[in-house]
Each structure stands twice: as C-alpha cells, then as structure tokens.
Amino acid sequence: xxxxxMPRLIQIPILHSSVxxxxxxxxxxxxxxxxxxxxxWEERVxxxxxxxxxxxxxxxxLRLDMRQVKLYQDSLPVCGREADLVHTLAALxxxxxxxxxxxxxxxxxxxxxxxxELLLEEYRLLGAGGGEQAESLLDRRDRFIAARIxxxxxxxQIGLLFIGALHDPGKYxxxxxxxxxxxxxAPPTFFSSKEHPR
Length: 198
Hints:
It contains seven helices and five strands. The protein is α/β, with parallel strands linked by helices. The protein has one domain (about 5-190). The chain has a five-stranded parallel beta sheet with strand order 3-2-4-1-5, with helices on both faces. Helix 1 (about 25-35) crosses helix 2. The longest helix is centred in the first third of the chain and has 25 residues, at about 40-60. The model has no long low-confidence stretch (mean pLDDT about 90).
C-alpha cells in the first residue's frame, strides 16, 4: 500500500470544560481544583476560547474534504446516540462539540470512540483520585480508542481524533495508519502543562 492510500489520523489536543463532562462536570471541576488549585482553573477557563479558536483555524487551514473524514472524540461512547450526545453538549456551550457538529454538517462522519463501561468506571474514579487504578483505566481507554480507529478508518480516509492531553492511543495504532499531531497556535500554557484530569 502506498503512503497516499494509507489511512491518516490527525490527533488534536483538547482542553475539556466542565460542560464537556456532562453530568460529571461539577466533579471534574472539583477534582481539577483539588489537584491544581483555583488559580489554575481560572487560567484554564480564560484560555479555553482562545485554544478552541486556534484549533478551528488550524483545521480550516487543512482544507480537508469532509466527506473523507471520520471524527473521533475522547469521552464519546459507542452507543448509537453519538450525534444526540454531541448536539446536547454543543447546545450547552461546549466549543468542542459545536465544532464536531459543524464538521458533521460539512460531511464528516462521527464515530463513537470509547467504551461506555470504561467511561462509567472513569466517572466513578474521578472524585476518588484513583492513582494506579486511574492509570490502568486510562491505558484501557487508549487501547479501546485505538481499536475503534483501526476498525473504522479506511484507506485514503482521514481521522480527526479530539483527545485529552493525558491520553496516548497512538502507541496502540497499527503501523498502516499514519498518525500526526495537528499543529496549532495556542496559548503557551496549553502546551506546557499536563494539568488535565482524565
């Protein structure tokens, strides 16, 4: 298979908001503040819009044929209701999910990316600070995401993976998928920190 026929995955580092976390938003915010402090939370909120503008600009600059694009989203379960979940979170003000809606309207295909069971386990651990258990769970989630990409991203297609900073599903992708990061111009604090609860 020549390189131009190989599936391509563009990994997009994202910053979650409490809205993105749905019913677990308050627990997410509390866990973040407990770990990093209220000042870091305020910085994060301030940077949120700038980061999402930078992501949108970088994606627009790629000029992709959206009919060839599959969208993968951290924390979006395989459930048959993916578009409804994205719409609900976009309506609540999630920049991430509003962008997913815009891309699907342009022809991209939304793909459920995570195991609902693993996400429920994650939500249970969110407030408990699970340590090694949380690390193991993150690894299992990354394996699941990589498997979903491998089974749904076809030759000549491009996947856009919206993924939190602690994740690394790329290490589990098969070698026939070309993986690369999206180059964005965002506030330096976004790149200098791993201050992202899972």
